[in-house]
Specification:
Number of strands: 8
Largest sheet: 4 strands, antiparallel
CATH architecture: Sandwich
Strand order of the largest sheet: 1-8-3-6
Helix content: under 10%
Order of helices and strands: EEEEEEEE
Low-confidence stretches: none
Distance between the termini: 14 Å
Number of helices: 0
CATH topology: Jelly Rolls
Number of domains: 1
Shape: elongated
């Protein structure tokens, strides 16, 4: 068996003037040709004018919460971190047609758009027959 990886990215945009305290769900369907998501990473593009970039992010599907809403700083890695270590380790099974939600909770009215990328590390095992 040989492990195969794919990195899938979803851009999340929360528009300016979104109300303080609101939580927005952004859906993504993970590539079903893979078995499991083993890592999640967040990279901020624009902070929406929120002081100290304080907003909260979580991950769930219809059956499970994989990460409760937490300060985005807990999910971002600094530039000095090696690329293969920038992912929060998770074990999220990928099933047919299952919607996965990225939750964003903001503490204040957004002055500009809040934009960030979420990258998912997907894996599957490829069976290699030796002949």
């Amino acid at each position: 068996m040989q492990k195969k990886y794919k990195y899938q990215t979803r851009l999340v945009t929360i528009p300016s003037a979104t109300a303080a305290g609101s939580t927005t769900d952004t859906g993504v369907t993970l590539d079903r040709s893979y078995d499991v998501c083993t890592g999640i990473s967040v990279q901020q593009v624009s902070d929406g004018g929120i002081a100290n970039a304080y907003y909260r992010v979580g991950f769930k599907d219809e059956n499970n919460t994989y990460q409760n809403l937490t300060h985005v700083g807990n999910l971002k890695a600094g530039d000095a971190v090696a690329p293969n270590e920038k992912y929060l380790d998770v074990n999220i099974p990928i099933t047919d047609g299952q919607q996965f939600d990225i939750q964003t909770n903001i503490p204040a009215v957004l002055v500009t758009d809040l934009i960030y990328e979420v990258s998912f590390r997907l894996e599957y095992y490829e069976v290699i027959n030796d002949q």
